[in-house]
C-alpha cells in the first residue's frame, strides 16, 4: 500500500513540473522580498538624486544671495569717502543700531562732485555726518551647526529711482540673513593696496581686511543654508576701494588742462610719457625671489598699484594691465578710459597676482597689446629670461627676433599704413624694467640656455637666450630699459 502511495505522489510531482504550474508559497515570498528590495533601492536612489539636486539648488541660491550682498557692499565702499571699522570713529549724535558693527561708510559731502551714487552716474549729495552702518543681529528663525544664524543689516539713507541718496529717509534693511556664527576658514589679510599693515576684523561669520587709513576693504562672508538641507556652507569674498580719500583729493581727478600728471614716475622710476599706456607684469615662479626683504612679486605689485592710484580720472587717460607667465591675460579686453571704477578694477587685478607660472612668455601679450587702439606706451616688468625669437604677428615671418618685429610694425604699419585708424597711428614706445638680473645690458645674467615652452606646440626644449633681450626690445622701440637690483 505504501509503495502505491509513494508512486502516486512521485508521479504527481513529475506531472506538476512538466505542466509548469504556479509558484509555491515560499517561492512567492522570496520573489516578493527580492522585488521589494529592488524597489526600495530604486526609491532610495531617486530620493538621493532629488536631495542632491535640491542641495545644488539651495547652494546656488545661497551663493547668489552672498554674491549680491557683496556686490552691493563693494559698490557702496567704492562710492564712499572712508571705511570705518570702530564704533569710536562714528560721529557723536549718530544712533548705532543693535547688534555688532561690521563696518560703516562715510558718505561724501556736497562738494565731492566727482562721487557717483550706486549703479548710476548721478552725483551724491550728502548733508549729514552720520555714516551708512552695516551690522550683525541674531536671527532666531534658524540655528546652524555651532549656534544661531545672523542677519547682516544696513542702516542708512535709501536710494531713489534716480540713484540719489535720500539723506532724510534713513532705513534699516536686511542685506543677508544666513550669516554663520563663526568663520570656518583660516584667513590672512593681504589687502590689494599692498599695505602690509591692513587691519583684520572678524565678526561672527564675516572677516574684514581694512586698509589702515580707511581707503578700502575686502570682505569675506561665510553663509549657511538651514539644517533641513544638510547645512550647506558658502564662503565668498570681494573687495573695493573708495573713490575719494581725504588724503588723495589732490591730483586725483578732474580735467587737468591736458598736461601729464605730476606723479607719473612711481613705477620703479619709469615715467609715463603719454596718456595711453599698458602695463605688463611677470607672474613666473622666479618672482617669488627676495628683493630688499620682500618678494619681487610683492614689491612689483606695490609699485604698480601706487602708479595706478596716481593716475588722474576723467582726463583722457587710457589704461590696461596684462599678467604673463606661460600665457598672457589682460584685466580689460581693450584699454579703458581711467575712471574711479576702472582704477579699482585694475588695482584689484594686480593685488590678486601670484608668482606661480612655470615659464616666462611675454610676447603673446605684447603682440596683442601693441595692436590695440588707444595705446601709445607699453611698460613690461620681469625678472626672467625669455626666448625672444618666434613668428612675427603682423607678417608671419618665422624665427624672427621679436624686438625687430615690433619695431617694423611701429615703423611700417602703425605709423604709415592708411588702413590703420587715426587713433592707432602713433607708434608705441616700449619701456622695460628688469628686476634682479640685468637683461638690459646682460651684465649679471648667470644663464646662457634655458628651458622654453613653445606657445604654439606646447613642447619644451632647451634654447640659447639673448641676455639683453629687454634692452633690445626697449631701444628698438623708442623706450628705455631700467635695471633694478
Task: Explain how this protein is built.
The structure is a single chain. Helix content is 26%, strand content 27%. By secondary structure, it is α+β, with helices and mostly antiparallel strands. It folds into two domains: 56-241, no CATH class; 276-484, Rossmann fold (3-Layer(aba) Sandwich). Strands 10, 13, 14, 15, 16, 19 and 22 form a seven-stranded mixed β-sheet that branches. Mean pLDDT is 77; it is low at 52-56, 110-127, 190-196 and 243-258.
What's the story with the biggest beta sheet? 7 strands, mixed
From the coordinates shown, what is the CATH architecture of the largest domain?
A: 3-Layer(aba) Sandwich
Helix/strand order = HHEEEEEEEEEEEEHEEEHHEEEHEEEHE
Gyration radius over CA: 33 Å
Estimate the mean pLDDT confidence.
Answer: 77
Label the overall shape.
globular
Counting H and I runs of at least 4 residues, what is the number of helices?
7
CATH class call of the largest domain? Alpha Beta
CATH topology of the largest domain: Rossmann fold
CATH superfamily of the largest domain: von Willebrand factor, type A domain
Question: Summary?
Answer:
The protein is of the alpha+beta class and 485 residues long. Helices cover 26% and strands 27% of the residues. The protein is built from 7 helices and 22 strands.
Which descriptors would you attach to this protein?
single chain, 485 residues, alpha+beta, Rossmann fold, 2 domains, 7-stranded mixed β-sheet, 5-stranded antiparallel β-sheet, 7 helices, 26% helix, globular
